[in-house]
Amino acid sequence: MGLFGKHKKQSEQTKEPTLSTYDRIVFEKLKSDEDHYIVQLVDQMMKGSPLILNFDLLDIDQANKVIAFLSGVVYAIKGEIVHIQEKVFLFANKDVYKDGTVEEFLKEIVE
Questions:
Q1: In this structure, are residues 107 and 81 in contact, taking their beta carbons and an 8 Å threshold?
Q2: Alpha-carbon Rg of the chain, whole angstroms?
Q3: Model confidence pLDDT, tens digit, residues 58-76
Q4: d(CA 8, CA 10)
Q5: What is the per-residue burial (b if ≥16 Cβ within 10 Å, else e) of 26-64?
Q6: In the chain, what are the domain boundaries?
Q7: Taking 90 as the threshold, does the pLDDT of residue 14 lie above it?
Q8: Could you please report the per-residue DSSP string of the chain?
Q9: pLDDT value at 6 more than 90
Q10: Does 48 have pLDDT greater than 50?
């Protein structure tokens, strides 16, 4: 075994287990349309966590503000929005379907 083989073996042992996309889904019942709150959710989406957001508690103007902002972000990252229920949507980056776990989850819950 060469000099580089030993280093490679050590780095393989310290790898953290990777989570499936399904395991990273953020479920949130939105309580406000405050900018810092929404930006924190977007940051999670940009890092690969799909967002399933429920807009029930927001009035129509607040919900429209948040949806408009998230729609712009999703467009910019070539992501996807999925309508799950009347006031529940999935917002995700373009890589959300790579492992197939989110697609299976959506088949079970979309009406």
A1: no
A2: 18
A3: 999 999 999 999 999 999 9
A4: 5
A5: eeeebeebeeeebeebbebbeeebbbbbbbeebeeebbe
A6: 16-109
A7: no
A8: --HHHHHHHHHHHTPPPPPPTGGGPEEEE-----HHHHHHHHHHHHTT--EEEE-TTS-HHHHHHHHHHHHHHHHHTT-EEEEEETTEEEEE-TTTTTTSHHHHHHHHH--
A9: no
A10: yes
Q: Which residue has the tokens 């009347």?
A: 86
The predicted model scores a pTM of 0.75
Count other Cβ atoms within 10 Å, centred on residue 71. Answer: 14
Tell me the two tokens of residue 37. 């709150």
Residue with tokens 């959710």: 41
Query: Domain 16-109 adopts which CATH fold?
Result: Translation Initiation Factor IF3 (3.30.110)
Position 111 pLDDT exceeds 60: no
d(CA 21, CA 102): 6
Structure tokens at 5: 């083989």
Task: Output b/e per residue, 77-109; b: 16+ Cβ within 10 A.
Answer: eebeeeeeeeebbbbbbeebeeeebbeebbeee
Neighbours of 24 (CB within 10 A): 17
